[in-house]
């Protein structure tokens, strides 16, 4: 836990108000403060892991209780400052239109621009520096999806939103299109009221899921989730899940797209999140033609890098297989039929077979 200087004794209530104002000034849409008790969420996590719903994401189980016990991850932690940052840039191509365009590749809206991790960590560091200027020495550590942290539960407890039936955090004034980050701290700040849930009887997110990955309210089987299949999974995509993927080549937003609360979603003012290389609606054949060098160059500093070039071609091959039969698609697939990667060859062969026999 980082610390510098000599701590004075501040008015913590006034400091909490200042922290939220500073967070807004640094580009965060919202900030809240919570304690460290996550007992019920720890039990939910253990049940989820026990059912094997994490798939190949072994890191979810590797850290034991530290994910749900902030003071075990960072000794001395008393409070967690949670922040959120909206990520949909104005002018982004309509998501439904891209999903319905069989020639286009759908990339989850969060991944169209610069990777948010470093950007948000830098802002959290600046927030910590502002706090230090007032209180002097204090312990802290900034996280943005970079350690075993139950960020959605912490954000809920900090009043930033509730965890929806699709397991995504929802803010009643801003929907769910936002990133989360945390500042673990040893400051005894006053905590905010946890957010109450407002999903009611709505089940649109469960019904829309292309692969039925949402088994029921608050129960997600990641092994069936298209985001997991296209990003986290390193091997072959199960054949029965390929057709339901449609043209989704990196992530999936369907459960958020149908959420009524996203009528309140706010456009981001962060220019770094603007779509790069027309990825908000680029053509599948063009993306499939990228060499590895082009992939690495064009995805530099982007979340898309996480899938790797092999995964990129695998995902696009599936989308091309799901496209209406055409000579141009078959030619594009044929050009990759002898690719050095066995994973790519397997998915290209499946796609070619589906092109030749779409039924």
Automatic annotation (TrEMBL):
It catalyses: epoxyqueuosine(34) in tRNA + AH2 = queuosine(34) in tRNA + A + H2O. The keyword Iron applies. Gene3D superfamilies: 3.30.70.20. The active site is at residue 145. Its main location: cytoplasm. Cob(II)alamin binds at residues 67, 145, 169, 180, 227, 252-253. Its cofactor is cob(II)alamin; [4Fe-4S] cluster. The keyword Isomerase does not apply. Residues 187-219 form the 4Fe-4S ferredoxin-type domain. Pfam families: Fer4_16, QueG_DUF1730. GO terms for molecular function: 4 iron, 4 sulfur cluster binding; cobalamin binding; epoxyqueuosine reductase activity; metal ion binding. Its EC number is 1.17.99.6. It comes from the Bacteria. InterPro entries: 4Fe4S_Fe-S-bd, 4Fe4S_Fe_S_CS, QueG, QueG_DUF1730. GO terms for biological process: tRNA queuosine(34) biosynthetic process. Keywords: 4Fe-4S, Cobalamin, Cobalt, Cytoplasm, Iron, Iron-sulfur, Metal-binding, Oxidoreductase, Queuosine biosynthesis, tRNA processing. PANTHER family: EPOXYQUEUOSINE REDUCTASE. This is Epoxyqueuosine reductase. It comes from Rhodanobacter glycinis.
């Amino acid at each position: 836990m980082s610390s510098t200087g000599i701590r004075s004794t501040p008015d913590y209530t006034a400091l909490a108000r200042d922290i939220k104002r500073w967070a807004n000034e640094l580009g965060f849409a919202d900030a809240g403060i919570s304690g460290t008790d996550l007992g019920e969420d720890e039990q939910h996590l253990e049940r989820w892991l026990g059912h094997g719903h994490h798939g190949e994401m072994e890191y979810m189980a590797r850290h034991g209780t530290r994910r749900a016990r902030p003071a075990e991850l960072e000794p001395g932690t008393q409070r967690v400052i949670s922040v959120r940052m909206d990520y949909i840039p104005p002018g982004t191509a309509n998501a439904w239109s891209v999903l319905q365009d069989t020639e286009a590749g759908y990339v989850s809206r969060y991944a169209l621009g610069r990777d948010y991790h470093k950007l948000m960590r830098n802002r959290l560091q600046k927030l910590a520096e502002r706090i230090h200027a007032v209180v002097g020495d204090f312990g802290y550590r900034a996280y943005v999806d970079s350690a075993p942290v139950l960020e959605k539960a912490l954000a809920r407890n900090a009043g930033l939103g509730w965890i929806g039936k699709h397991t995504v955090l929802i803010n009643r004034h801003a929907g769910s299109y936002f990133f989360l980050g945390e500042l673990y701290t040893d400051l005894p700040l006053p905590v905010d009221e946890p957010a109450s849930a407002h999903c009611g009887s709505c089940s649109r997110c469960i019904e829309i899921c292309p692969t039925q990955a949402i088994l029921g309210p608050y129960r997600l089987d990641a092994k069936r989730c298209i985001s997991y299949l296209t990003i986290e999974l390193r091997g072959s995509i199960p054949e029965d899940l390929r057709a339901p993927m449609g043209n989704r080549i990196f992530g999936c937003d369907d459960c958020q797209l149908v959420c009524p609360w996203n009528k309140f979603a706010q456009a981001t003012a962060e220019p770094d999140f603007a779509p790069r290389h027309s990825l908000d609606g680029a053509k599948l054949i063009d993306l499939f033609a990228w060499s590895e060098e082009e992939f690495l160059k064009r995805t530099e500093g982007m979340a898309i890098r996480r899938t790797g070039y092999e995964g990129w071609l695998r995902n696009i091959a599936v989308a091309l297989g799901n496209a209406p039969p055409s000579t141009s698609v078959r030619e594009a697939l044929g050009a990759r039929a002898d690719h050095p990667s066995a994973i790519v060859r397997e998915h290209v062969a499946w796609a070619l077979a589906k092109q030749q026999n779409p039924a």
